[in-house]
Amino acid sequence: MLFQPERDIFREMDDLLPLLEAIVSYIDEGVILTDRDGLVLYQNPAAGQLLGHSGNMPLQSLADIKGVDLQDALEKVVARARAAEEESGPVSSLIRFEMQIPVEDDVRDLEFHCCRACEAQGNMRLVIIQDRTNKRQLETLLDRASGDLVTKDPTMLDILDRVEKVAPMQAPVLLQGESGTGKTHIARLLHRLSRRSARPFVEVNCAAIPESLLESELFGHVKGAFTGANQDRQGRFKAADGGTLFLDEIAEIPMHLQAKLLRALQDGAFEPVGSDKSVKVDVRIISASNRHLRELVDQGYFRADLYYRLAVFPLHVPAIRERPGDIPLLLRHFCRQLERRGYPANVQYSPEATNILMNYPWPGNVRELENAIEHAMICSVGNVIRPESLPQDIRAATLGDSGINVRPRSGNGNGNGNGNGVHDERERIEEALANANGNKSLAAKYLGVDRTTLWRKMRRLKLDGAGAAAG
């Protein structure tokens, strides 16, 4: 049968709706058909569910969707597609984009596919919706595992959960904690999980830039602004436009620049050095400090109004000594990383070495731990990390200033037994010699030192090894 143009069944909604109903009522993807003004002509049950529309009442308009302007988003992506088509030729008839929709007390990641062909032919918009929440959560977990945020510590897991919640928002985040705790890694994770992830992530270490150059570094300058300014230069704020600016060591910004920084945060505007023309930027700020900013405010070294602007969402990153249970995880993680760089594979770690790592206070935190593990792999003995494989300062700090291991020994707990394993140097050496049946080389291994060091200690303590350690 020939199709008659004047008898187009898709011209009449009464003919179209039963067909849609039969096809899409029972699929998991949401399907919405609207006119150009956002009035909903048809929706399947999954669409209302995915968009968090309460009750069984159908959507009357895209404006009924709470917490997001889907109509505006559709207008923008369609306009961008038209512009791209005019500039470089035909583009796909299906436009894909993602949005996060607040649903009850959670956020749902939804992927939208808008059919441009329907709009061109029938002045209508067909939108297909898919739930990507579980996929994005899995990607987040995999993303964590690829960085140095390896943890099973409840406090750190809570921080990472909070990072996931705040990442899609525009709120400034302040990260505080000791150097080497992973603040930079968290800042990068915040950017990767944000809606700005496709835009620049610009890092500035405020402590590493001379005070005289910091204003120009942040805000740029115009030609002739100062000696040596031979051309205009955009600063880090402009470089991060549309993305994220990470201001590390924010406490080092001098007071005279803090007012300018505050205005840039509040108004999204600033004047480059030597210029009286304002530059507008759209930048999300993440800042970090190893000093307690609130105390600096109280002491008059940091502006209170700037602190409150930066600390909309503060996070304190704990030191590694506050989460020692993560040390074995990080040990394995860094060993695997080093293997990929050409270090020996399948290196094992002795219980004694692990015990030293667990008891060391790690003033340099995760950064120091990573360096210590690399040192230990270089000095591993027979593919095993032993106490003597570890850096000497770590052994000395953990084992006492003698560098000799504190080893528990059997006993009845009356003061001559192991108690808590803490003994003076003479007793430790005598015990090691006794356990080694007088073999000084073996005793030195027990103590985590070389034979020459043990001999020197014995000589200073006037221990010849007789009795407890003959030979």
Could you characterize the architecture of this molecule?
With 471 residues, the chain is an alpha/beta fold. Helix content is 41%, strand content 15%. It is built from 19 helices and 14 strands. A hairpin with a 2-residue loop joins strand 3 (94-103) and strand 4.
What does this entry show, briefly?
The chain is an alpha/beta fold. It has helices spanning 13-24, 45-50, 70-88, 116-122, 133-146, 154-166, 183-192, 211-219, 236-239, 255-267, 293-298, 304-310, 327-340, 351-359, 365-378, 392-399, 425-435, 440-447, 451-460; strands at 30-35, 40-43, 94-103, 106-115, 124-131, 173-176, 201-205, 244-248, 269-270, 279-280, 284-289, 313-316, 348-349, 384-385. The longest helix has 19 residues, at 70-88.
Distance between the termini: 109 Å
- Kindly estimate the percentage of residues that lie in beta strands according to DSSP: 5-15%
Mean pLDDT: 80
- Specify the helix fraction band: 40-55%
Strand order of the largest sheet: 2-1-5-4-3
The counted number of beta strands is: 14
Helix count, per DSSP? Answer: 19
Main beta sheet strand tally, sense and closure: 5 strands, antiparallel
Strand-pairing-aware structural class: alpha/beta
Shape: extended
Rg: 32 Å
Low-confidence stretches: 1-7, 401-423, 466-471
Q: How is the secondary structure organized here?
A:
Blueprint: H1 13-24, E1 30-35, E2 40-43, H2 45-50, H3 70-88, E3 94-103, E4 106-115, H4 116-122, E5 124-131, H5 133-146, H6 154-166, E6 173-176, H7 183-192, E7 201-205, H8 211-219, H9 236-239, E8 244-248, H10 255-267, E9 269-270, E10 279-280, E11 284-289, H11 293-298, H12 304-310, E12 313-316, H13 327-340, E13 348-349, H14 351-359, H15 365-378, E14 384-385, H16 392-399, H17 425-435, H18 440-447, H19 451-460
Parallel strand pairs: 6-11, 6-12, 7-8, 8-11, 13-14
Antiparallel strand pairs: 1-2, 1-5, 3-4, 4-5, 9-10
